[in-house]
Amino acid sequence: MFNILLPVIPGIQHLESLKELHGFALRALEFVDFDPVDEDLLWSAIATCYASLGSLRDASQLFARVRLKTTLLCMSMISSFLDCGAVEEEFEEAFSLFDRMLRQGFKPNSVTFIALLSACNHAALLNACRIHGNAELAEVAAKKLIELEPQHSAYFVLLSNIYADASRWNDVRHVRAPMKYGA
Questions:
Q1: Domain ranges of the chain
Q2: What is the DSSP string of the chain?
Q3: What is the largest CA-CA distance in the chain?
Q4: What separation in angstroms does the CA of 176 have from each of 10, 132, 154, 172?
Q5: Which Pfam families does the annotation name (predicted)?
Q6: Helices 153-165 and 122-131, packing angle to 10 deg
Q7: CA distances for 113 relative to 11, 39, 69, 86, 95, angstroms
Q8: What is the pLDDT of residues 12-53, one digit of tens each?
């Protein structure tokens, strides 16, 4: 049944219409057991639509209520926060959610990094990690960035500074050595 709704959701242009559909889906779940994959797709589509209509609050409330937080739903929320990234709180919430995903054992894939990188430029991503003291996330992001653009020494410098801020001096030496000796 939810398969019928999925193509309709992205075309919804009024918040009240989306809220009605969301309410219908919640009521339907009370009476029928749906395939978890279908349910995941539905919640992800509704959350994304809420965000596209400018209601991150509704998207966040939906996310908070869903019991099983899958990679798809988490990525929908991260993309939603970053798409609305004009506000610093949403930017921070996206990275906080990504960090929680990593701690819960989710394995990021290329889609995960594309969602993160497409919403902000590469240096801003690393700088956000530096500002928030998240050396682990910076390390993951930097390795991907260095794979994509190894000629940009700024990524090495910023990663080195992040390690220094975290007092990870062996890592600082490891990052700076190739720069120092031209390797």
A1: 1-116, 121-183
A2: -HHHHTTTGGG---HHHHHHHHHHHHHHHHH----HHHHHHHHHHHHHHHHHTT-HHHHHHHHHH-SS--HHHHHHHHHHHHHTTTSHHHHHHHHHHHHHHHHTT----HHHHHHHHHHS-HHHHHHHHHHTT-HHHHHHHHHHHHHH-TT-HHHHHHHHHHHHHTT-HHHHHHHHHHHHTT-
A3: 67
A4: 47, 22, 12, 6
A5: E_motif, PPR_2
A6: 10
A7: 26, 24, 18, 19, 11
A8: 999 999 999 999 988 988 888 777 778 888 888 998 899 888
Tell me the residue type at 110.
S
pTM of the predicted protein model: 0.57
- Measured in degrees and rounded to the nearest 5, phi and psi for residue 79 equal -60, -40
Residue whose token pair is 């490891």 = 174
pLDDT in tens, 98-124: 888 888 788 777 767 766 665 555 456
What is the chain's length? 183
Query: Which residue has 């990021």 as its token pair?
Result: 108
